[in-house]
Amino acid sequence: MTVSEFARIPMQDDEATTIFEKGAPGRRAFVAPPLDVPQVDGLIPDKFARAAAPRLPEASEPEIVRHYVRLSRRNFDLDSGFYPLGSCTMKHNPRLHERVTALPGHAKLHPFQDPARSQGALELMYNLERALGEVSGLPHVSLQPSAGSHGELAGVLLTRAYHEDRGQHRTTVLTPDTSHGTNPATVTMAGYKVVKVGTNADGGVDVEDLKAKADENVACLMLTNPNTLGVFDPNIEEIASIVHGVGATLYYDGANLNAIMGISRPGDMGFDIVHFNLHKSFTQPHGGGGPGSGPIAVSDRIEPYLPVPVIERVESGNGAGPHFDLIEDDARRPKSIGKLRGFQGNYGCFVRSYAYIRSLGAEGLKDASETAVLNANYLLAKLHQDPEVAQYLPLAFGKLCMHEFVLSGAPMKKELQIKTLDLAKRLLDYGYHPPTVYFPLLVDEALLIEPTETETRETLDGFAEAIVAILKEAKDDPSIAQAAPYSTPVRPARRGRRGEEPGHPSAARLTAVRPGACRSGRRPTTARR
């Protein structure tokens, strides 16, 4: 099969049409029966009422189902293949969690339900808070933030409240140059100035640079450990001492928590505030922007400022067992930073994450992290087992890694004339989602790879073989990778090295690849001239 034939597989190369272009006037999928209750007018103010009925598509149920199924198949997803998106921890989302979340008591719980009639949900949330507190080594937890970035904002706002309560006006927040992009964005949103801290030769925080920039104006240092280079900083206790020595707080970006669960706790390292990404470490699915969840855990000195409402366990004293309340009384929480969102959070995220924690237990969480680190180091070793990969894609820092690692494509770009972006796009033709590219910013032509603990050795082997195959292909003809991908719904205009469409002698050797064709040692076939 040639590349052009592969590109015409149904639902990949077909022309995109909207649901409005399908169907015909009068077609229906479902028609609601007439109202059997009195109609009440005036519920919607006139200024919000439509002047005309909305223009909705008129399609049959099969047309609607096929439309959305077709759309879903045009996208790469975690259920379709390997997704080594560094720093995003794209690991399998167990179906058991979906079944538990869909139980009527969870799925049909109304957000306005009175706490007295929501005891099961409040107990689950309370227990999830205790579990996250144990994982982080910090005793006080709020489930409110709706995402990791929202958790970051909550953490910096807590820092602001902490300092203002002491009459201190601090102006800057320190962030490493390896930090996630949301860190400086969060700092700016919270009204602080970003000050970057450099990285040392081993990939950790430059302690001397930190000492030079840590002064009485610093409110906080935002740090993730291990960091986005996949390096666990051995100087973390000294770093904490420096930050606390100037009266600042130490904030833990929990995006990389999947590497250390059950092994090391941020609270024990000296951190005051931690956020969790439930969609990363605790298998809540990535929501494409929502719903999400980014709870925060804090130390005793930060606890008075936690957002409201706070879940409280109350002992009945009459032998009936405890009950749970939502506390948002200003008189009881006078120093709280207030509400961060409506209601208490995205409850379905809590159910899935709690199910994950309870199904694995403490030893299971530790095993998950150890396997994630093992898989990352195995894949790194597998890749560098090939001399050409080691030559063209060297490890940016160190010799080993934690849960992820960063390769530099600078030699590949110089010697093979293909960029990291070209390699990433060509991987799609091999049935693999590309890793994160061009991040962290301090690594030239960065390729950030995170295999997670849920992938098999055969999958990792196949991915490594695909990288090797692309590099060997690029030595012969870099224009193949430069014009990739060939098998996706959206593709670049086809131009060869000399401006020809694919059909010129160089493009005739394009590799036709079935998704996952490199697995189990199978090499992609090559179209002959």
From TrEMBL:
It comes from Svornostia abyssi. GO terms for molecular function: glycine dehydrogenase (decarboxylating) activity. InterPro entries: Aminotrans_V_dom (IPR000192), GDC-P_C (IPR049316), GDC_P (IPR020581), PyrdxlP-dep_Trfase (IPR015424), PyrdxlP-dep_Trfase_major (IPR015421), PyrdxlP-dep_Trfase_small (IPR015422). The glycine cleavage system catalyzes the degradation of glycine. The P protein binds the alpha-amino group of glycine through its pyridoxal phosphate cofactor; CO(2) is released and the remaining methylamine moiety is then transferred to the lipoamide cofactor of the H protein. Coiled coil: none annotated. It catalyses: N(6)-[(R)-lipoyl]-L-lysyl-[glycine-cleavage complex H protein] + glycine + H(+) = N(6)-[(R)-S(8)-aminomethyldihydrolipoyl]-L-lysyl-[glycine-cleavage complex H protein] + CO2. Its EC number is 1.4.4.2. Keywords: Oxidoreductase, Pyridoxal phosphate. Gene3D superfamilies: 6.20.440.10, Aspartate Aminotransferase, domain 1, Type I PLP-dependent aspartate aminotransferase-like (Major domain). Residues 520-529 have a biased composition (Basic residues). Residues 481-529 are annotated as: Disordered. This is glycine dehydrogenase (aminomethyl-transferring). It is an enzyme of class 1 (oxidoreductase). It comes from the Bacteria. The gene is gcvPB. Residues 368-476 form the Glycine dehydrogenase C-terminal domain. Residues 169-287 form the Aminotransferase class V domain. The keyword Metal-binding does not apply.
